[in-house]
Design brief:
single chain, about 140 residues, alpha/beta, Oxidized Rhodanese, domain 1, 5-stranded parallel β-sheet, two-stranded antiparallel ribbon, 6 helices, about 45% helix, about 15% strand, globular
């Protein structure tokens, strides 16, 4: 009986720990829903768009005025260094920074972490939820350079 009770509490503890860690990972970043970003674009809200898509994907589809970095997946020093071209623009304003990547996952999180490490306040950083593949409003997309 004691052993079963111990197992039960162990399972409960592990479940709680999993939920706690999952929540930390999932909510450690500021995500921007496509509907909200669409409103920002429609209203002309000032925003800095940092696009890390590979060049061929950027040419296929990107937001007007975005900064092309081709840093995807931003998981090493060479790729992260490409993001530096956006820093002077970011540092000259207090506007929100929206990170665009193919799917809004690890490459975007790597970029978010890198910009944060360079002194960009986390309160200004956003990841477009779903990235370009999840963007449902084609009228806001440009093609070609």
């Amino acid at each position: 009986m004691k052993r079963e009770l111990f197992k039960m509490w162990g399972v409960i503890f592990l479940g709680f720990l999993f939920i706690l860690l999952w929540g930390k990972v999932s909510f450690a970043y500021n995500y921007l829903k496509p509907e909200e970003f669409k409103k920002w674009l429609e209203t002309g809200k000032k925003v800095i768009i940092v696009d890390i898509q590979p060049h061929d994907e950027y040419v296929k589809h990107h937001f007007k005025g975005s900064i092309e970095t081709n840093a995807f997946p931003a998981n090493n020093d060479v790729l992260r260094k490409r993001i530096d071209k956006a820093l002077p623009i970011i540092n000259q304003s207090n506007d929100p920074v929206v990170i665009i990547c193919p799917r809004g996952r690890s490459g975007a999180r790597n970029t978010y972490d890198y910009l944060k490490s360079k002194g960009v306040p986390e309160s200004r950083l956003y990841i477009l939820e779903g990235g370009m593949s999840g963007w449902p409003y084609p009228e806001f997309i440009e093609k070609g350079k």
